[in-house]
Design goal:
Largest sheet of chain A: none
Structural class of chain A: mainly alpha
Number of strands of chain A: 0
Number of helices of chain A: 11
Radius of gyration of chain B: 24 Å
Distance between the termini of chain B: 24 Å
Oligomer: heterodimer
Largest interface: A-B, 46 and 48 residues
Number of helices of chain B: 13
Helix content of chain A: over 70%
Helix content of chain B: over 70%
Order of helices and strands of chain B: HHHHEEHHHHHHHHH
Structural class of chain B: mainly alpha
Shape of chain B: globular
Chain lengths: ~270, ~300
């Protein structure tokens, strides 16, 4: 089973990595090369169909959809990546401490995770995003803060098996302190799991950001994100502006797919 | 229990004065002070929590000042609609995911399996709100096959079964797709694993029809861990319901939650979180019980 899947998944993983690299490059570099203003309105050319002047057409205020898509991509991709890193940082430290010390400490920490997990993630996200509304930075932190639970469990599991290994005992008998054992020996050895999970978390965080922005609680207009571009496109359907729903949707779908594919591929390679 | 503590203190972490918000931007300070006192907001936080918890123990979820109705009545009015939506979606995903996963495992590594896996992978990464938007654009706006959204046709106030069902189809499909993808991946995986076991080879060797082997022997064993997965999906379904109800303007619990979050209706948020947590815990409990029935080897001490 493994060999058959490997043959199939590798070209897809390559395409996925290429897509991620191209998306990052285009979102950040294209606006420097061409004149693309995501905020300039031109009501006379509202709802223009895709043309040479506006490759993806214009929205209800005559803003260039391509410029908005790229500006939105900068926000969505950076929120996804930073939030995933925040989640992994919290999750790794939490999981590693919990797994390493074990006993009542471990069971208490894991009970806390259980409590958080019994509240739907989107509830927590809506709460926090509505309360600490505003900037891109707080949104990154809010998403990171709700996404660390799964990773902390995985890291804990990994640490539980790793800490029984001989080299950990060797390190301990050589007089290494607990923090040194955790952060110099256990965490680096769990890096495979951590990196794989980070990749999946980027996909999850992007979906969280776009969902919140779609609901009007994440990134707020006029600042574009792939999520709120979609929610405005939804009202544009009634103006028969069908071309506006496709670009942000495909951008989210393909990017999320790409990160999930890379994650799947990394996991297979480890397994 | 832990859930109430968590959400209560999380809510009060919020910046902004509740009484001021309720009284309005230009309210006189005396009026704000009166509301503050009425709500018990001048008490220390732990005392507010105690009062709220005491009411909860007596089945009183509190009163929404924003909506001028008791939280229990607000939720009671909507919970049935949301459970109906979630139930339909759940049924739809199981009915599609299980046979698909089984057939994929049976035909594993053929063209059919690969195409199906690809489609499922895309569905797995699909943002719910985009799928919903596309369904509206296609079936409601372009083809006029189904209504755009809402609970039932507006021009009748009477309860209308057919109209309600018509309004349920697109939201249920939208909500089903996400869990469907995860589940069929899961079922395919555990079926493939089971099919390599010796007892399957024995069953095929003794001449049982393949259908019987697949559905009676393999599926039964593959479904056992799936029951736990099913229980664990309930929180995600609630999350999906918020988005789905928002897309289709379906007046259920998800929409109420979103509105309460937007206008900071604390007690409604708290009440809904408690109810949801209880439902989630019940779901997990039910999964554990079913697990014991499906697999007699499991014993709970």
């Amino acid at each position: 089973m493994i060999d058959a899947r490997r043959v199939r998944i590798e070209p897809m993983a390559a395409i996925s990595i290429a897509w991620i690299a191209i998306a990052l490059l285009v979102c950040w570099i294209a606006p420097l090369l061409a004149h693309l203003d995501a905020y300039a309105t031109d009501v006379a050319h509202a709802y223009a169909q895709p043309s040479l002047a506006h490759w993806l057409g214009t929205d209800g205020l005559g803003r260039d959809e391509l410029a908005r898509l790229l500006a939105g991509g900068r926000i969505t991709l950076s929120v996804g990546i930073v939030a995933a890193l925040v989640a992994m940082l919290i999750g790794t430290i939490y999981g590693a401490l919990s797994g390493y010390y074990g006993g009542w400490f471990d069971s208490t920490l894991m009970r806390v995770v259980d409590v958080f997990l019994s509240v739907p993630t989107l509830f927590l996200l809506l709460f926090l995003a509505a309360l600490f509304n505003g900037s891109v930075l707080t949104l990154m932190l809010v998403i990171g803060f709700t996404a660390w639970l799964g990773p902390s469990r995985l890291v804990r599991g990994e640490v539980l098996t790793l800490k029984e290994r001989l080299y950990i005992e060797a390190a301990r008998s050589a007089g290494a302190s607990d923090p040194r054992i955790i952060f110099r020996h256990l965490v680096p050895n769990a890096m495979g799991t951590i990196i794989t999970t980070t990749t999946f978390m980027v996909a999850t965080a992007m979906l969280a950001e776009t969902a919140l922005s779609y609901l009007g609680i994440g990134i707020r207009l006029p600042t574009p994100s792939w999520g709120n571009l979609l929610s405005s496109a939804q009202s544009d359907i009634f103006a028969r502006a069908y071309w506006l729903i496709l670009p942000p949707g495909f951008a989210i779908l393909i990017s999320v797919c790409a990160f999930n594919f890379v994650g799947d591929w990394l996991r297979e390679r480890q397994g | 229990m832990g859930v109430t503590l968590l959400t209560f203190f999380l809510l009060h972490l919020a910046p902004g004065n509740l009484a001021q918000t309720l009284a309005g931007e230009n309210a006189a300070p005396a009026q704000v002070a009166r509301i503050t006192h009425e709500l018990g907001l001048d008490q220390p936080l732990y005392e507010q929590y105690g009062v709220w918890l005491g009411k909860l123990a007596r089945g009183d979820l509190g009163f929404s000042y924003r909506r001028q109705a008791s939280v229990a009545s607000l939720i009671g009015e909507r919970i049935g609609r949301t459970l109906l939506l979630m139930g339909t979606a759940l049924l739809l995903s199981i009915v599609i995911a299980v046979p698909l996963g089984v057939y994929q495992a049976y035909k594993r590594n053929t063209l059919f399996d690969r195409v199906a896996s690809g489609i499922v992978f895309i569905a797995w990464s699909m943002p719910t709100f985009w799928l919903g938007t596309m369904l509206i654009a296609m079936f409601a706006v372009q083809l006029h096959w189904s209504p755009v959204g809402g609970l039932q046709t507006i021009d009748t106030t009477a309860f209308d079964w057919r109209s309600r069902m018509a309004h349920l189809i697109l939201p249920a499909i939208t909500l089903a797709v996400v869990s469907l993808a995860g589940w069929s991946r899961y079922i395919r995986g555990s079926m493939v694993e089971q099919l390599q076991e010796d007892y399957i080879r024995t069953a095929i060797a003794k001449g049982l029809p393949i259908r019987a082997v697949l559905f009676h022997h393999t599926l039964r064993n593959a479904l056992i861990p799936f029951i736990t997965v099913l229980g664990g999906t309930i929180p995600a379904l609630f999350g999906g319901a918020i988005i789905t109800e928002q897309i289709f303007a379906y007046p259920g619990m998800g929409q109420l939650f979103w509105q309460s979050a937007a206008d900071r209706d604390y007690f409604t948020l708290l009440g809904m979180t408690v109810i949801t947590a209880v439902l989630v815990i019940l779901g997990n409990l039910l999964a554990d019980v079913l697990y014991g029935i499906a697999d007699p080897r499991v014993r709970y001490d």
